[in-house]
Inverse folding.
């Protein structure tokens, strides 16, 4: 079963990694690297990406002519998607365990961030037979 | 770039893969190393044979190349354990090993027992079986399961370490253990088949090859154990299910339910073979779940339409199946068969009894079956409601599309 684990962080909350002291940033990045390496070694990693910050995000809609109309920054957003993992696991319990591990990534002073990780199942193959 | 292997040569390689692996495991007693070496030999064959031609004795060729790979690795790693056993001779080690290894016996069954060992998770057993017995490359397996090659490589090497660490004996175990292990093997083959069969046409072509591969491996198992009724039943079940593959999806890849399938698209040759197999097996006694499912598939496959289907026989077969396995999926199918024989109300009553089963709690199939039966009962509103609930709960896009489309059609009148 494949799942996406999404790391949603509050826009004005603790996860303002750029304002952290250097050692905290290093610790956090090292944790994320180790986490990905472990997932690769266990044969569970499908993909993992970190996303650029909300400052660079664009909101796109099609205009009347089908051309893109872009909105710039949206300061009103309460939280943003910082990154995600797609994992292929044997059980639901396993993905919850992994999400908890990611949630406890170290933040300022090395304390666990306990971020909210949203877990969603990736749609898969249909059953063998419909009725 | 070399020419790709032609189909017969590809099949030859895949047939030889477990035989070569078996010969090497017997010789060096190191499953993981032997498996790696065989994989390398298969790759070498795939690159060399198209230009050089297939060697006179392909099996010996593969054993020789794989043996050479092992001695190369042994030299490189200075693994004393192997060196002492192999290098103390003037005969080149790979020749020595090739000569000693090949007695021509077929160890495929023992290898299947190893690769499908209960200590492995299903996903690991599937990957290992496809590589070690099926002779598929890691890339092919990764593509089939839509994961990166590196991830699949890790899964396979972890599986091999588990096999190695568990100290599973290569030689056959006692009869009771053998029966249990055979059950694990057929289960893994069945899972591989299902993975391929449920792949929707077009978008995931590589996946559908998995059902052909599962059928091929199950045929090999059947050849090795011709008297095992459940193995024969599994071959029949795969044939009879696979026979409907072309009809189960429409032109845009949408799912087509059994009662609306164009039955002229069904593979008559596969149906004839499957029916013959299950008919020959069932009367011999020792009836098991695969034979029963094959028998049910045979009744469907032989009918000209849903209306002309012998539902009484299907209901009876599900009745027997229910006594053998406490699987809620069987109970759901049985409720459908009950509805076809005794009317939708009787089927719905069976569903009510199942509603308390925790294994079905929040499962879309319960809603999908209820919707289907309500539709048959003429309760359009109730059917729409349950089709939509099922659509909301399923984890398959193809099935969700089917359920939503069906609900919309009913709601639209």
């Amino acid at each position: 079963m494949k799942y996406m684990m999404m790391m949603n962080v509050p826009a004005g909350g603790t996860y303002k990694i750029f304002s952290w002291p250097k050692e905290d940033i290093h610790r956090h990045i090292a944790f994320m690297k180790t986490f990905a390496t472990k997932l690769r070694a266990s044969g569970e990693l499908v993909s993992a990406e970190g996303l650029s910050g909300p400052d660079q995000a664009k909101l796109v809609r099609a205009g009347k002519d089908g051309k893109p109309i872009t909105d710039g920054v949206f300061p009103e957003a309460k939280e943003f998607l910082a990154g995600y993992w797609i994992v292929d696991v044997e059980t639901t319990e396993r993905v919850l365990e992994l999400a908890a591990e990611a949630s406890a990534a170290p933040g300022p002073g090395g304390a666990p961030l306990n971020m909210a990780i949203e877990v969603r199942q990736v749609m898969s193959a249909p059953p063998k037979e419909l009725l | 770039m070399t020419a790709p292997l032609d189909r017969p040569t590809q099949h030859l390689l895949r047939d030889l893969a477990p035989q070569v692996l078996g010969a090497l495991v017997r010789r060096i007693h190191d499953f993981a190393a032997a498996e790696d070496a065989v994989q390398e030999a298969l790759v070498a064959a795939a690159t060399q044979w198209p230009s050089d031609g297939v060697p006179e004795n392909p099996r010996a060729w593969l054993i020789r190349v794989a043996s050479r790979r092992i001695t190369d690795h042994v030299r490189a790693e200075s693994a004393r354990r192997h060196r002492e056993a192999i290098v103390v001779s003037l005969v080149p080690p790979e020749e020595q090993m090739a000569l000693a290894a090949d007695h021509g016996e077929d160890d495929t069954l023992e290898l299947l027992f190893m690769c499908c060992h209960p200590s492995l998770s299903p996903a690991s057993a599937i990957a290992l079986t496809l590589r070690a017995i099926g002779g598929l490359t890691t890339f092919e397996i990764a593509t089939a399961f839509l994961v990166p090659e590196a991830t699949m490589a890790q899964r396979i090497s972890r599986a091999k370490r588990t096999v190695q660490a568990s100290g599973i004996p290569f030689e056959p175990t006692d009869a009771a253990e053998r029966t249990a292990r055979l059950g694990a093997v057929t289960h893994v083959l069945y899972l591989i088949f299902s993975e391929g069969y449920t792949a929707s046409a077009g978008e995931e072509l590589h996946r559908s090859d998995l059902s052909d591969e599962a059928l091929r491996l199950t045929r090999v198992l059947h050849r090795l154990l011709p008297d095992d009724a459940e193995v024969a039943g599994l071959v029949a079940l795969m044939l009879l299910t696979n026979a409907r593959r072309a009809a189960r999806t429409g032109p845009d890849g949408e799912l087509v339910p059994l009662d609306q399938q164009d039955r002229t698209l069904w593979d008559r040759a596969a149906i004839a073979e499957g029916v013959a197999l299950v008919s020959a097996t069932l009367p011999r006694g020792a009836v098991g779940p695969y034979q029963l499912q094959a028998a049910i598939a045979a009744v469907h496959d032989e009918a000209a339409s849903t209306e002309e289907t012998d539902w009484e026989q299907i209901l009876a077969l599900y009745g027997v199946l229910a006594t053998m396995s406490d699987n809620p999926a069987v109970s759901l199918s049985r409720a459908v068969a009950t509805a076809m024989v005794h009317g939708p109300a009787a089927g719905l009553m069976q569903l009510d009894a199942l509603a308390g089963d925790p294994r079905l709690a929040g499962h879309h199939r319960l809603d999908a079956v209820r919707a289907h039966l309500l539709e048959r009962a003429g309760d359009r509103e109730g059917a729409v409601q349950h089709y939509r609930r099922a659509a909301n709960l399923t984890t398959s896009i193809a099935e969700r599309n089917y359920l939503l489309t069906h609900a919309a059609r009913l709601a639209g009148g």
User: Anything to note?
Assistant: Chain B touches chain A at residues 121-124, 145-148, 150-156, 158, 194-195, 197-200, 207, 241, 248, 255-259, 336, 365, 368-369, 372, 394-400, 402 (CB under 8 Å). Residues 87-91, 201-205 of chain B have pLDDT under 50 and may be disordered. Residues 175-197 of chain B form the longest helix (23 residues).
